[in-house]
Specification:
The complex is a heterodimer of chains A (611) and B (98). By secondary structure, chain A is an alpha/beta fold. Chain A is 48% helix and 12% strand. Classes of the chains: A alpha/beta (611), B mainly alpha (98).
């Protein structure tokens, strides 16, 4: 066994560099071992020998991505929480109480407890690179309250409104946005990151640390705080009932912190108790396994990336409509400044995807880009197709579709670059429609059928909300080509009539709610279940996890049920089919046949799936 | 728990754990304490077990059944798989043993 410390220590010109580099993985997970070592190293710091401490990452694209969700999964009581989280809390306390100024030098993903680690430092600087972004995973992805100080430190640092956007509602921040909000103190280009970091350290090394740590909260008038609290409560009231308690508790913790000059131990303990209760609560218990599904999909999308493949990418296009997109992708998928030494930059040429294009395939290094929903069969002869039809809605989910036989190296390299830039990637081998378009159609068709047959939008909204859906499909309609959408739905559900008015009546996220209509919900679940069964049967995706991630990120399939395919067990699909008479008019006949085939097959989507 | 199952599980652990996994893996080894597994590697273990077993497999129920992540041993994982897999898939003549 190769023993390697997850934290390296180096003293350079009076600056103690602590480099987190947890062994064996592409990203840093702040394990108990790493926490214990960091604590010991910080305890030894003496102002006589050290003028500043810098915490940074040894991973190229990850500052710290998490603390390890196994901890959340194994907690059995609130008392366990204190014991289980102690090593990490001790490390963060050691940072907060360090005798000299501490600086987090952030390059790469900074997620969840990585953000909290940075918050416990006196200063934060970030690299302005495509893969440096900030995201609080806890509530947005796992429905629990952060455990290591974010509810206390964020509102004071960036104000209550920005903190709620970031922590409650899952806003993702680039390094520049983080600097604009005050989450980081400075943002440097990668090309001169090191000299500017050194200059920054020199400038803060003489700071009066006691003063720095008592800095006043981000200016906000009491009226502003009250108004923000009211707006957030209204938003929380529109969440599914199961979520409201945890969101409200989190908001209350943040409101209390927003007015204080600094947090005391009791504030952090209060957060810790609330966090433990939320981890033990039903929504978190259902949500945390989704982590594994997402990681599996990511690993599958980027597997077979040749070790020699380029790590830097650029995008170009001669098509006027794609020039802007090429520029954006280049910004998001390539580090600012010079290409790193020892790596070669690969260029992808973007071409517009033309379904009826000549069947001569694409040249190597060319990618066909498809930005709209399509009701036509996918032309696989285009080779590698990047399809992201909901980007206009702020949904960064891209389908990387290819024909069998396409070079997996290019596919995985592109998936890797886009994934690092925070896109969700669905790797597919579409047989007829794109997988994303199939999902959109399967999501909307039963809703349109329900509304087209005289159903109430408020009762549809009530049914979806009670199941746990937060975002509703009515939000999409203005941004999509309704004629293409109608054609797409008709392909999935030929019996569907009067689609356009039904689509325009779809409830929006802020629509009025009424008591849910279970028939509508059953039809939606049956349609989605048939989508999953069909995609796997036709081998349009290589793994069920791609479908779960697509359902989560595109249609907001509720974490309350872990995932689409985790929810749709043989038992549940059997129950749906037994009540098919009530909703059969709302789904295509072929969908019922797909569900029956799934039952007949007798295999759950996942082994170990509980009913 | 058949020898083939244990061999398959150890092989999957090696693929997911990489260089951190020692040359000798014992049934009583904790994946967290002795084999260097974190939550990210557990996700990779799901995939490498799938390669051995031929089914997508989730480990969250196994993880949640232990009060302390340090108790997640190789033996415990084998026991979980025996209970979770359809009966025919733990027999000697399944993919795992070929």
């Amino acid at each position: 066994m190769i023993e390697r410390s997850p934290v390296r220590r180096e003293l350079r010109e009076g600056v103690l560099l602590l480099t987190i580099d947890t062994p064996g993985g592409a990203v840093n997970v702040f394990t108990h071992q790493a926490a214990g070592i960091l604590t010991d190293m910080l305890r030894d710091v003496s102002p006589a020998a050290v003028r500043a401490v810098v915490v940074r990452s040894g991973k190229r694209r990850s500052f710290v991505n998490g603390v390890g969700l196994m901890m959340a999964g194994t907690l059995k009581s609130a008392d366990d929480a204190a014991a289980v989280t102690r090593p990490v809390r001790d490390a963060y306390l050691a940072l907060r109480e360090c005798a000299v100024p501490t600086v987090a030098a952030i390059e790469g993903n900074c997620y969840g407890c990585g953000v909290e680690l940075a918050l416990h430092c006196d200063y934060r600087v970030a690299a302005d690179t495509f893969d440096t972004h900030f995201y609080m995973t806890e509530l947005a992805d796992y429905v629990f309250i952060p455990t290591f100080g974010a509810t206390q430190d964020l509102p004071r640092l960036i104000g209550l409104k920005a903190a709620t956007d970031f922590l409650l509602w899952g806003a993702r921040l680039s390094a520049r946005q983080a600097a604009e909000l005050g989450l980081v103190d400075a943002c440097f280009q990668r090309v001169d990151f090191e000299p500017r970091l050194s200059a920054f350290i020199d400038s803060v090394a003489q700071t009066d640390i006691a003063e720095r740590r008592r800095r006043p909260p981000c200016a906000a008038s009491p009226v502003h705080l009250v108004r923000t609290g009211r707006v957030e409560r209204e938003r929380i009231a529109r969440l599914p009932p199961a979520y409201r308690g945890v969101y409200l508790t989190c908001l209350e913790l943040m409101e209390s912190a927003a007015t204080k000059t600094f947090a005391v131990d009791e504030d952090y303990r209060r957060e810790q108790r609330a966090a433990a209760m939320s981890i033990l609560d039903t929504p978190c218990r259902a949500a945390w396994p989704f982590f594994f599904l997402r990681q599996m999909a990511t690993a599958l999308a980027t597997s077979n990336t040749p070790r020699t493949s380029p790590r830097e990418f650029s995008f170009a296009s001669v098509d006027a409509t794609l020039v802007e997109l090429a520029a954006e992708l280049s910004t998001r998928c390539t580090s600012s400044g010079a290409t790193l030494q020892g790596t070669e930059k690969a260029t992808f040429v973007l071409r517009r995807y033309i379904p009826e294009g000549k069947p001569d395939g694409l040249q190597s290094g060319h990618v066909a880009v498809s930005t709209r929903l399509s009701a036509a069969d996918v032309n696989n002869d285009n080779g590698l197709i990047l399809h992201f039809p909901l980007r206009g809605l702020g949904i960064d989910v891209a389908e990387l579709a290819s024909a069998d036989g396409v070079d997996r190296g290019s596919e995985a390299g592109l998936a890797s670059a886009l994934g690092d830039a925070d896109w969700t990637i669905i790797v597919s081998r579409p047989r007829t429609l794109f997988v994303i378009d199939e999902l959109v159609a399967s999501w909307l068709a039963p809703q349109a059928a329900y509304l087209g047959s005289g159903g109430s939008p408020a009762r549809l909204a009530g049914a979806l909300r009670s199941f746990g859906f937060i975002r509703l499909a009515g939000d999409w309609i203005d941004a999509l080509d309704i004629d293409v959408l109608c054609q797409l739905l008709r392909r999935r559900f030929p019996e569907l009539r009067d689609i356009q008015p039904a689509l325009r009546a779809l409830p929006r996220t802020d629509s009025a709610l009424a008591e849910g209509e279970s028939v509508a919900l059953d039809a939606v679940l049956a349609s989605l279940g048939a989508f999953a069964a069909r995609m796997l049967r036709q081998r349009c995706v290589s793994h069920v996890a791609f479908l779960d991630v697509a359902a989560r990120d595109l249609i907001d399939f509720p974490l309350l049920h872990t995932s689409l395919c985790r929810h749709l067990t043989i038992k549940r699909v059997g129950e749906l089919l037994r009540s098919r008479r009530t909703f059969a008019h709302l789904v295509a006949e072929a969908d019922i046949a797909s569900l029956e085939e799934f039952i007949a097959n007798g295999r759950e989507y996942y082994v170990g799936q509980h009913n | 728990m058949t020898p083939n199952l244990v061999r398959g599980v150890v092989s999957a652990i090696r693929r997911a754990g990489g260089d951190e996994v020692p040359s000798q893996v014992e049934l009583e080894n904790s994946l967290v304490l002795h084999l260097g597994f974190d939550s990210m590697k557990m996700a990779l273990l799901s995939l490498s077990l799938e390669g051995e077993l031929g089914f997508p497999i989730l480990l969250d129920d196994w993880i949640a059944s232990h009060p302390d992540p340090c108790d997640l041993t190789v033996a415990s994982l084998c026991g979980y798989l025996v209970a979770a897999l359809p009966v025919e898939d733990t027999n000697e003549d399944t993919k795992l043993s070929r």
